[in-house]
Amino acid sequence: MQRVLIVAFGLVSLSTILLTACPSGTSGDGDGDGDGDGNRVADVLALTGDATNGADLYDTDCRVCHAPDGSGTASGANLQGLTESDEDLLGTIIDGEGNMPEWGGMYSDQELADVLAHIKTL
Ligand code: HEC
Question: How many domains does the chain have?
Fold first, then answer.
């Protein structure tokens, strides 16, 4: 009888370990879906963007469509001398628009602030 209990306990422990080891992180990735953007935009605008880091992000992720100097390509709009409000620009960056990919799920709030600071220098 004792042996059965020990085996049963072992099985319960094992399944607990397996369950805990399974990635439960999929639920943490839900901010790219466009929900709650008003809050996200406000969160980002509360931060101070670092344009130098933003330039690195831009080189990696944006340059291919928007050109190194932001003048645009056949695949991406001209970002020089932007006149839209920061809210509108962030809305486009977070949610995407047309062929513009959405970055809300890929970038942290700070990274969004950084890349915004950079594109405003173009
Ligand atoms: C696959 C190509 C592509 C990539 C990569 C890309 N964009 Fe875009 N972006 C576009 C296109 C196309 C538009 C125009 C969307 C529209 O108005 O339909 C656009 C529009 C924008 C706008 C709005 C411009 C305006 O005048 O309102 C901003 C801001 C912007 N992109 C920033 C970025 C940033 C920042 C990145 C990198 C994190 C990036 N884009 C990466 C294609 C791209």
Answer: 1
Q: Which domain holds residue 87?
A: 35-119
Whole-structure pTM value: 0.77
CATH number reported for the structural domain that contains residue 59 in this entry:
1.10.760.10
Q: 53: buried, middle or exposed (CB in 10 Å: 19+, 13-18, 0-12)?
A: middle
| Pocket lining for ligand 1, CB < 6 angstroms | 61-62, 64-66, 75-77, 79, 82, 84, 89, 92-93, 97-101, 103, 115, 119
- pLDDT for res 39: 87
What is the predicted pLDDT for the residue at 111? Answer: 98
CA of 95 to the centre of ligand 1 (A): 10
Q: Would residue 94 count as lying in a domain?
A: yes
For the cut 70, the answer to whether the pLDDT of residue 51 exceeds it is: yes
Phi-psi region of 77 (alpha: psi -120 to 50; beta: other; left: phi over 0): beta
Q: How many CA atoms lie within 13 A of 99 on its CB side?
A: 9
